[in-house]
Write a structure and sequence with these properties.
This protein has seven helices and ten strands. By secondary structure, it is of the alpha/beta class. It has a single domain (about 5-210), classed as P-loop containing nucleotide triphosphate hydrolases (Rossmann fold), CATH 3.40.50.300. About 35% of the residues are buried. The protein binds adenosine-5'-triphosphate (ATP). Adenosine-5'-triphosphate (ATP) binds near residues 37 and 39.
């Protein structure tokens, strides 16, 4: 199996008083990783480094074997849009667009033509196909969550990153979101990283990195 993500000697700091040294890790196709740790320990920071939304102070981030250090901002944006699917806590949808338009916007950002079939297939498997023409602001929290997952998968990313995807969900929806994410990633052979405090996910994903 190919390495999707490799982190080596990664250091990051927000100014002089907040420095982080992260453990090395390798994540292959189809693998899942849960990142745990106390509040403020740097979980989201690590996720943002993996997403190339932050640049490390030193160390290497290799995505599908490619060192991301030398990339220009434009190249980084392009690779992120194509290779990384991000499920944010706050979804950052475009409020004036409907569900389908929000999904196909992911194609636009990666310079691809609108993949309506993909949007419809994903929506069907996530059971939001009846909502495609609905304005995004009319959706419930759980429905938006599923649109967020579908959007993250629109470009068949090799790496899916999810920040607290089950926070504030009841047990039934927590399990549903877990299955949607893991099954969708399995279909794509994507590697999946979830940052969470959610105790319920601990028993579901045995591969865990506890930051301390
Ligand atoms: N842009 C920033 N500038 C300065 N400090 C920051 C910035 N973003 C985060 N921090 C600090 O860095 C530390 C790590 O933040 P991070 O969000 O990665 O933690 P976390 O482990 O995800 O926390 P939580 O579980 O509470 O979400 C925190 O102390 C936070 O206040």
């Amino acid at each position: 199996m190919e390495d999707v993500l490799r982190l080596e000697n990664l250091k990051f700091s927000y100014g002089v008083h907040k420095t982080f040294t992260f453990p090395d890790l390798i994540l292959k196709q189809n693998e899942q990783l849960l990142i745990l740790g106390n509040s403020g320990i740097g979980k989201s920071t690590l996720l943002h480094l993996m997403a190339m939304l932050l640049r490390p102070e030193s160390g290497k981030i290799l995505l599908n074997g490619k060192d991301t250090a030398g990339l220009t901002q434009k190249e980084t944006g392009h690779i992120r849009a194509q290779e990384v699917g991000i499920v944010f806590q706050q979804h950052h949808f475009v409020k004036s667009l409907n569900v389908l338009e929000n999904l196909t916007l992911a194609n636009y950002f990666s310079n691809q033509s609108q993949n309506l079939k993909k949007a419809k297939d994903l929506s069907r498997s996530l059971e939001i196909d009846h909502l495609l023409k609905q304005p995004i602001y009319e959706l419930s929290g759980g429905e938006k969550q599923r649109v967020g997952i579908a959007r993250a998968l629109m470009n068949d990313p090799s790496l899916v990153l999810a920040d607290e995807p089950t926070a504030s969900l009841d047990d039934k929806n927590c399990e549903a979101v877990y299955h949607l994410l893991t099954e969708s990633c399995k279909r794509n052979k994507s590697a999946l990283v979830i940052v969470t405090h959610d105790q319920r996910l601990k028993s579901l994903i045995p591969n865990q990195l506890i930051l301390s």
